[in-house]
Design a protein that fits this description.
Strand order of the largest sheet: 1-2-3-4-6-7-8-16
Number of strands: 16
Helix content: 10-25%
Bound molecules: pyrrole-2-carboxylate
Strand content: 35-45%
Structural class: alpha+beta
Distance between the termini: 30 Å
Low-confidence stretches: none
Order of helices and strands: EEHHEEEHEEEEEEHEEHEEE
Shape: globular
Largest sheet: 8 strands, mixed, barrel
Length: 323
């Protein structure tokens, strides 16, 4: 029997320049009983990974696109569940994506006034309805796992970085004189951060419980007084975050607080490589580390019905040799 044409309804947005494609309809049947977001992620990953690749990879998407499957929540006080993914695989968490989900839910009339909780694989995050596109997210606990870890990066010399969790594992590096954190310097930034990530992997340097460090964040000075710092963030795969990266900003806030450079309630303005800014503050987390709040702005950019035709040789996306 032929596979049949599949239709997937998606809403696109960008948060500070970084795209999010939220799949709001078209997922396969899974379970009669409510499934958690982790059960959904594992099911989609093992049995329907074509959905991820069809949605975010070319020719429907592009290598920098982040996707989100919108799911029914299992907790009665949550408005939705979400699983995030990109061209390379599934993400633990994603804050620019959570902001994208928030504007999407608002667009669909599915956000209530006040706090709205969302289940994600990293835990429950909370958003308020957008105000002029600005959304504040209360993220999961974030913390520094190791400070100033030295690594010998072939071709680049000794580099020191902090290992921190902000909803993904990050290696955070002060660029210093090593590399300019500048949009005109993307190739060098990508080569440098890919080399750092490969070195971490080769040396078995991980987050807690062996968690793979798949995001590399490099900091330099901001271009003006609108921000305290500017970053470049390499995401899993070879693409970089167009936004200042919300989970990366959370990891940075945890490191700043651990170093006594950010007080509770003080605002940190993190610019990304496009000079768009996320604002972050922290509260103390009872278990140690911090509870970050990150604010960023998103815009809806499209509504579409994606068509997956059985005869289309690229129906599941184009596979690059590096994928
Ligand atoms: O904003 O947390 C984030 C994020 C992770 C990967 C891309 N964006």
């Amino acid at each position: 029997m032929s596979e049949g044409v599949k239709k997937i309804r998606a809403i696109d947005s960008h948060t500070a320049g970084e795209p999010t494609r939220v799949v709001v309809d078209g997922l396969p049947e899974f379970s009669d009983t409510p499934a958690t977001v982790i059960e959904w992620r594992d099911f989609l990953q093992s049995e329907h990974d074509w959905l991820r690749t069809a949605v975010v990879r070319e020719p429907r998407g592009h290598e920098a696109m982040v996707g989100a499957f919108l799911l029914e929540p299992t907790q009665p006080d949550c408005v939705a569940g979400v699983v995030f993914f990109n061209n390379a695989g599934y993400l633990h968490g994603c804050l620019h994506g959570t902001i994208g989900v928030a504007v999407t839910l608002a667009h669909l009339g599915r956000l209530s006034a006040g706090e709205n909780k969302i289940e994600t694989p990293t835990g429950i995050v909370a958003v308020h309805p957008p105000v002029d596109g600005w959304v504040t997210v209360q993220n999961v606990r974030s913390f520094r796992h190791a400070a100033a870890v030295p690594v010998e990066v072939p071709g680049w010399g000794t580099v020191h970085g902090d290992v921190a969790w902000g909803g993904n594992w990050f290696f955070l590096i002060d660029a210093g004189d090593t590399v300019a954190v500048d949009f005109a310097n993307l190739d060098q930034l990508t080569d440098f951060t890919c080399a750092v990530r490969a070195t971490l992997e080769a040396n078995g340097i991980t987050g807690e419980d062996g968690g793979e460090i798949d995001h590399i964040e490099v900091f330099g000075p901001p271009i003006n007084d609108d921000a305290d710092s500017k970053n470049f963030v390499l995401c899993p795969g070879r693409e970089y975050d167009r936004s200042p990266c919300g989970t990366g900003t959370s990891a940075k806030l945890a490191c700043l607080h651990a170093d006594g450079k950010l007080q509770l309630g003080q605002t940190w303005r993190q610019a990304g490589i496009l000079d768009t800014v996320f604002e972050g503050t922290v509260e103390e987390a009872p278990e140690g580390g911090v509870l970050p709040t990150v604010k960023g702005r998103a815009f809806i950019t499209g509504e579409s019905k994606l068509i997956v035709h059985p005869d289309d040789p690229f129906r599941h996306g184009i596979v690059y040799p590096r994928d």
